[in-house]
Structure formats: structure tokens, C-alpha cells
Amino acid sequence: MARAKSKPKGIGRKVAPAKKVVPVKPAAPTYTREELIEQMRELLDGADAILATAGHSVTWGYPTGALTEARERCNLLFNQMARLPAVEDAEGEYESPQEIFEKALHAEPGTVPSLARPGTFIEWIGYIPVLVEWGGFLKRSADLRCVDPKLKWISATGYRSTHVAYVDGGSNPSAIVRGILTSAMAQKEFTLHDVEKWGTQAANEALAANEWLRNALAKGPVDSLPLPRKYFAVQRPLFA
After folding, report:
1. How far is CA 170 from CA 47, 51, 139, 191, 222, in A?
2. Nearest-10 Cα torsion for 31, 103, 140, 60
3. How many angstroms separate the Cα of 125 from the Cα of each of 55, 92, 156, 157, 187?
4. Spatial CA neighbour of 239 closest among 121, 127, 125
């Protein structure tokens, strides 16, 4: 009886697929806190330069064109700061990357910052001061706060957050906030409120901690927006 021919070696055997070679990505550079702050400073200056020459409204949160790269770079710097060891502040709390950049790059308190820089300043509605916390390119909002606990205010809580969706090229934070306040006062439901305890407490704390703020209130209104007509009768004498 004839013997069956044997198969050549390798035929009929399963061959394992070749392993893919995954290229190793180089490690992301590690920067110090000071180096990241300086990079963010340069980024905000660059964003201001772009905005100064823009002849149209720019989407603030999700910009297009030349600001797109700046927004992506800003987010990257936030992430890089978050990877550094956390450091406690004077109150024993940990600051977020946004808070670290805001504190380091904040404009002089009491002065209107550039569009991209964070800053704190005062706007007036009649005799009523409104503390503006402008977030710039870092936060994309303007928080409004009561700072005179003796007065009625535009919100019972003593706080109002406004989202900044667009900025006009060549504009400034003061003009943008004044536009927001003017639009709010034009609403039929606009009124002035007695401020709740939490709001008056926050106002007193802000006054105690900021000499520039006390000085601004002592000087009185500067270029104030007019109150709606229905409040004319309740305005107090400014320099009684």
C-alpha cells in the first residue's frame, strides 16, 4: 500500500500576523509655572494684537480664523499647568490653572484691561456702582458684583454673570459691559432689588480687602449710565 505524501514544511500552518510597530511619541516638554505664565502672557498679547485690527465681531468662545490657534494654545497651556504639582494659596486652598493665570496676568485693579487680559474695574448706573470682573481670553465672561451694601442693586443676590459671546474688533471691555447693562435696563422686567445677606457680606469683604475700590466709591460716579426714568425720583443726592 502506497504511503501518503507528506506536506512540505510550513504548508497548512497558521502564521501569526506581524506585529505593528507603533512609533514612540516624544514626551511633551515640561515647563515650570513661571514659564507657562510667560507663554500665556505672550499668547494674550498676540490675541490683543489680532483683535485690535479686526474690523468685525469675533466669536469669543470658539473663534475662527487667526484666533483659532490662540484658543487651542490657551487650552494646551491650561492642561500643562494642571499637570504641575498643586500649590496651596494663602488660605490653604489649591488654585485651578485658570486662577493661577488670572492672578499672574491680571491688569492693574481699577483700570479697564485689554480685551484678552483679565481685569477688575467699576462701571456706574446712575449712583449705583457695578464691580466688573472681566475674564478676558481666559474665561470669556464678565461677572458683575454689588460693592455698596447700602444700596439697591440690579440683582437680589448681589451677583450677576454675563456670558460674552462676541467681541467687536477694536472695542474694549468697558464698552462691551456698558452695552450689556444698557440692554438689561431696557427690559420691561428690569428693577432694583434689596440685596440679600450673602451679597452684602461679599460687598463688605471686597471693600475691606481693596483700597482702590474704597477710593473709587469715595470719588463717586464717573461717566455713569442713566438709570431708567422710573428710578429718577429715588436717586439720592450724590454729594449731600
Report:
1. 12, 6, 19, 32, 22
2. -50
3. 29, 37, 16, 17, 15
4. 127
What are 129's three cell numbers?
456702582
Sign of CA dihedral 70, 75, 79, 81: positive
Residue 111 corresponds to which amino acid? T
Alpha-carbon distance of 74 to 152, in angstroms, equals: 38
Neighbours of 172 (CB within 10 A): 16
Q: Looking up cell 420691561, which residue turns up? A: 188
What's the pLDDT band for 13 if we cut at 50, 70, 90?
low
**For residue range 189-215, what is the model confidence (pLDDT) as tens digits?**
889 999 999 999 999 999 999 999 999
Task: Pull the grid cell for residue 157.
Answer: 443676590
Give the residue with greater pLDDT, 130 vs 92: 130
CB 168 within 8 A of CB 51: no
Rounded (to 5) percent helix, strand, coil in the chain: 40, 15, 45
Identity at 214, one-letter amino acid code: R
Average pLDDT of the chain, as a whole number: 84
